[in-house]
Design goal:
The complex is a heterotrimer of chains A (about 400), B (about 350) and C (about 260). By secondary structure, chain A is mainly alpha-helical. Chain A has a two-stranded antiparallel ribbon with strand order 1-2. In chain A, strand 1 and strand 2 form a beta hairpin. Chain B has about 350 residues and is of the alpha+beta class. Chain B has 2 domains: about 230 residues, Rossmann fold; about 120 residues, Beta Barrel (OB fold (Dihydrolipoamide Acetyltransferase, E2P)). Chain B contains 8 helices and 20 strands. In chain B, a hairpin with a 3-residue loop joins strand 16 and strand 17. In chain B, helix 2 packs parallel to helix 4 and helix 3 crosses helix 4. By secondary structure, chain C is mainly alpha-helical. Chain C has one domain: MetI-like fold. Chain C contains 11 helices and no strands. Chain C is globular. Classes of the chains: A mainly alpha (about 400), B alpha+beta (about 350), C mainly alpha (about 260). At the A-C interface, helix 1, helix 10, helix 11, helix 12 and helix 17 of A face helix 1, helix 3, helix 4, helix 5 and helix 6 of C.
Chain lengths: ~400, ~350, ~260
């Protein structure tokens, strides 16, 4: 490599480096934090640091070593954060029933006496290896509990993955609802977007400009402004209801807002440009003489449409659908403002766990699922749009 | 067999105020290979598009045999069309492309397969059935387009500059192939091109278009040897045009007087009147240099430039009476002088039968 | 007129209405005198604009949006332009990887990123600060700058720069006198995009901003959610006017730069 080449390389790297560092710090690291939160379980380790160290040498089958038992007692004596202790006990109890009473007894005993403590004398259960195993396991700082819970599963006492009881299972329903709303919005966008793009591509002059402008204008307008606008149109005394009542088509106002219908309408409006633009660009790339060719070969207009134009525009529909679906499943603002309680999507639940109840584990687990789904869709989208040139 | 020739009668086509086709009257015989030749914007493609049904005439009628077709939609005209850049369907493989017109005609699956095979064999593409158009070379795509336009056995095939995108060698091969197909299948072919040599080699007749009108229609030989106008003479091939006045036009021959003195003996022609201003056209390859013996016309001139073209030399001359371009065929006798160089004095000669009169 | 043409016309009219009508419907309500965000408008007044100027919550949020928007525009503009220049350089290794990485913030769901930023910002003491909000907004704004500057750089004929070099300009002079002026339209529109993105950002703001960094969009979000009033329409009006103004300024600068527009 010549010196000049080396210098250009270095120059290029120097130019991209600031953004790379910035994104590593403020983009990649936060996403890693989300993933880490989803599997991290620091309570046990923080509550029983000495026990954790002592448990490293134990095989978890035989009688635990004395040193570990004494380390546990020392840890109990050292805890002065009652909240931490409470969290730790809850954590232990969820793994092994009986820890609640056992721990209150043991903590009391540890604090009343000093020096070595015969735990089995305090409570016979300390002779049971299962309890020690639970203590040792709790000091492991990682868990799949949140990820399982995000899909409505848990581990039972034996460590097997089982479904949560129905009354505690809300997340699967919300995930399915998210996918369902995303799918409905995607289909609505495709049903409007495909003919719209075809119409725009078939027109010329100001008519085409008008149609394209009508797509680009919302794209340029604030999402909040658009959502507020739909609020005005859809509300009980909104323009749509007023107009319909004024025309005598309905007697009372239709419920258009704070329900699924409103969310789908507003989201379709917001996401329609992402459907129209990819289809439009695919349509423009179709050679102009294919439809005349089909006609000259004996295809009436509708058959030429079905056999030539539609299949060729499908690639745009697929790209657009991926883009719309990918964006839709991550949507937060529109459902939060236009939807009712039954229309909240996974993002709302994540926001609730993070902002409302400071449950980072669950927020992280649901976030990880959404992130993986979105990136997978994006990868498919990227693959599709990169080999477009090859096959058209 | 009932004659089903194509007739254009008083056909006009305007886009806005622009008249693209001006009072076209043209009959194309069944089985004829007719080239529509002209510069771009001369209306030739519009005429083809009207015949195919993609444009309708502003006025006038087009008919095929006894049927008037100018109001018929393109998919009911049953004419094969080969488009510029082929217009193959990129999402279908070769076989599906060729099967398309058969499918549109509701032909049974088994028959389709057989006809497709036959059509592809005809253009020597039997082995490439499953390829996508994007996987084919330009020449192969061209053959697929041809097979697709012929597979439903239309009696009329329209071709819109079909060879324009091919390189020279491939183009010449395809010209031969298309001519062979034309003869073998007895097709009527209407072929649009702006390439005069293509038109000359392939056609039964050529219609030369200029500004929406037919300048001349006739066999390639007529068009080349007996052009009716300065436009045709200059558009088809290369020619030397000399201005003069018709001095004598008799049975034995005609004489044209040149403005700077001197005369040219020319082929007699019925049309021009005596003492009329006319043009004389002499093709460069009909002119001899330094040839002894008796000829109708001979002049002395100075070579101003001689350019080597491989099979011929292109020599520019400045005569006393007029300038000339001569194509000296290198196999001919005038090769006797190994090299022509600028400044040489030479004698230029050509026979009266190679001189054709045009209206000025 | 054939049936199919009627259908096309009707569809076109309805689709355009669907896209445009909501945006038009909101504007007149900014001037209502009523306390309800509904039609008909009883009387026209500027009371809701006064409300925006007088009420502390609104005034503060507008000021905050300008601060954060300006900071984001500068940071994203500089980082994004540099990166786009680097991406154009043929010496860059794995350009595809870098390009994808720079676009990824547009793809990742905002709520997920917000949770991560909240966790991370608390750890590094960045939470509830202007710097934190500006960095968060820059993450989502910078892809627009990269895309826009890259597009205008792609339109520059390499031969023009080579010509300048052959005429004796140093690489730095070529950059300053040739490349930069030609890329300016892209940089400007990237900056407009960055500002507009920051102005419109709600989700990340919810996670990383404290009460003192409440932006206009954030304020609109809670107003729509909690006590909707025509102040929303007035704010929306400002939003639209603001976006158009910034775009107009960018267009003006672009047209004043004497460089002919290179086709992209």
């Amino acid at each position: 490599m010549s010196e000049a080449t080396a210098r250009t390389r270095l120059g290029a790297l120097g130019l991209v480096a600031p953004l790379v560092l910035f994104l590593a710090l403020f983009f990649a690291w936060p996403l890693v934090s989300v993933l880490k939160e989803s599997v991290s379980d620091p309570v046990g380790l923080r509550a029983f640091p000495a026990t954790a160290e002592a448990a490293l040498g134990w095989d978890r089958q035989s009688e635990p070593p004395i040193a570990m038992k004494q380390a546990f007692v020392e840890d109990l004596r050292a805890i002065d954060d009652q909240q931490l202790l409470g969290d730790a006990v809850r954590r232990l109890n969820s793994a092994q029933n009986g820890f609640r009473t056992l721990m209150s007894k043991t903590v009391r005993a540890a604090q009343e006496q000093s020096g070595p403590l015969d735990l089995v004398a305090v409570d016979k259960r300390w002779a049971d290896v299962r309890f020690w195993r639970a203590v040792a396991n709790s000091t492991y700082p990682y868990t799949d509990r949140n990820l399982l819970a995000a899909l409505d599963y848990q581990r039972d006492a034996a460590g097997k993955v089982v479904a949560l009881p129905a009354e505690a299972s809300a997340n699967t329903a919300i995930l399915i609802r998210t996918l369902w709303i995303g799918a409905v919005v995607t289909i609505a966008c495709a049903l409007i977007g495909l003919p719209y793009a075809m119409l725009a591509a078939s027109l010329t002059g100001w008519k085409r400009q008008l149609l394209l402008g009508a797509v680009l204008l919302p794209l340029w307008t604030s999402l909040l402004v658009r959502t507020a606008a739909w609020f005005i149109l859809l509300q009980e005394k909104g323009l749509i209801n007023d107009t319909l009542i004024g025309l005598g088509l309905i007697d009372g106002p239709l419920p258009l807002i704070f329900n699924r219908l409103g969310v789908v309408i507003a989201m379709t409006h917001v996401l329609l440009p992402f459907m129209v633009l990819p289809i439009y660009s695919v349509l423009l790339a179709i050679p102009k003489n294919l439809m005349p060719a089909a006609a000259s070969l004996g295809a009436p207009p509708w058959r030429a449409f079905l056999r030539v134009l539609l299949p060729l525009s499908l690639r745009g529909v697929v790209s657009g659908s991926l883009l719309v679906f990918m964006t839709a499943i991550g949507y937060y603002i529109t459902p939060a403002l236009i939807g009712g309680a039954q229309d909240q999507m996974i993002s709302s639940v994540i926001a609730f766990y993070a902002l409302g109840s400071a449950n980072w584990g669950m927020a992280g687990a649901l976030g990880a699922i959404l992130l993986v789904a979105t990136l997978a869709l994006y990868a498919v989208y990227g693959r599709l749009s990169s080999d477009r040139a090859g096959s058209l | 067999m009932a004659q089903s020739n194509i007739r254009f009668e008083q056909v006009n086509k305007s886009f806005g105020t622009l008249r693209v086709v001006d009072d076209l009257n043209l009959t194309i015989d069944q089985g004829e290979f007719l080239s529509l030749l002209g510069p771009s914007g001369s209306g030739k493609t519009t005429i083809l598009m009207m015949l195919a049904g993609f444009e309708s005439p502003t006025s006038g009628t087009i008919s095929l045999g006894s049927q008037r077709i100018d109001q018929l939609p393109p998919y009911k005209r049953n004419m094969g069309v080969v488009f510029q850049n082929y217009a193959l369907f990129p999402h279908m493989d070769v076989a599906a492309n060729v099967a398309f017109p058969l499918e549109m005609r509701g032909i049974a699956k088994a028959d389709i397969a057989e006809k497709v095979t036959r059509a592809l064999d005809m253009v020597q593409l039997g082995t490439l059935k499953d390829r996508r158009p994007s996987q084919l070379s330009g020449g192969q795509q061209q053959r697929v387009a041809l097979a697709r336009a012929l597979v439903f056995e239309p009696s009329v095939v329209l071709m819109d500059e079909p060879l324009g995108a091919l390189d020279k060698q491939l183009r010449e091969q395809m010209q031969l192939d298309i001519r062979a197909l034309h003869r073998r299948l007895g097709l009527t072919i209407v072929f649009v091109t702006h390439d005069q040599s293509e038109a000359l080699t392939m056609s039964d007749r050529i219609a030369v278009f200029n500004r929406g009108r037919i300048e001349q229609i006739g066999s390639p030989r007529e068009i080349y040897d007996q052009p009716h106008s300065r436009f045709v003479a200059q558009f088809i091939g290369e020619t030397n045009l000399v201005e003069g006045t018709l001095a004598e036009n008799g049975q034995s021959g005609a004489t044209v007087a040149l403005p700077g003195g001197g005369t040219i003996r020319v082929q007699p022609s019925g049309a021009p009147q005596q003492s009329q201003k006319i043009l004389v056209s002499v093709r460069p390859e009909r002119i001899r240099l330094d040839k002894g013996g008796k000829t109708d016309n001979s002049y002395s001139a100075t070579i101003t430039d001689a350019v080597y073209h491989g099979d011929h030399l292109r020599i520019q001359l400045d005569g006393d009476a007029f300038g000339f371009i001569v194509k000296a065929d290198r196999s001919r006798a005038d090769r006797s002088r190994a090299e022509w160089s600028p400044g040489d004095r030479v004698t230029v000669s050509f026979s009266a039968s190679d001189c054709w009169m045009l209206p000025a | 007129m054939r049936l199919i043409d009627v259908a096309r016309l009707l569809f076109g009219v309805f689709a355009v209405l669907f896209l445009i009508a909501p945006l038009i419907a909101i504007l007149p309500l900014a001037f209502t005198s009523s306390i309800f965000l509904t039609y008909p408008i009883p009387d026209y007044s500027l009371r809701w604009f006064r409300e925006l100027a007088v009420a502390d919550a609104w005034r503060l949020s507008i000021v905050n949006s300008l601060i954060v928007g300006t900071g984001t525009t500068i940071l994203a503009g500089v980082l994004g332009t540099m990166a786009a220049l680097g991406l154009r350089n043929s010496g860059l290794i794995l350009p595809g990887l870098f390009r994808t990485a720079f676009l990824l913030p547009m793809v990742v769901p905002a709520v997920v990123l917000g949770v991560g930023m909240q966790v991370f910002f608390v750890q590094i003491g960045f939470a509830n600060s202007y710097a934190g909000v500006i960095c968060a907004h820059t993450v989502v704004a910078v892809p627009f700058v990269v895309v826009s500057v890259s597009a205008s750089l792609a339109g520059i004929d390499r031969r023009v720069e080579r010509a300048a070099l052959s005429l004796g300009a140093s690489p730095l002079t070529v950059f300053r006198r040739v490349t930069l002026p030609l890329a300016l339209p892209g940089i400007l529109s990237g900056a407009v995009f960055a500002f507009a993105t920051s102005l419109d950002e709600v989700v990340l703001t919810l996670f990383v901003a404290g009460p003192n960094q409440r932006t206009l969009a954030r304020q609109m979000f809670s107003t729509i959610r909690e006590n909707i009033s025509p102040a929303i329409a007035a704010a929306a009006f400002l939003f639209i006017v603001g976006t158009l103004l910034v775009a107009a300024i960018a267009l003006l600068i672009r047209s004043r730069s004497t460089q002919p527009k290179t086709p992209a």
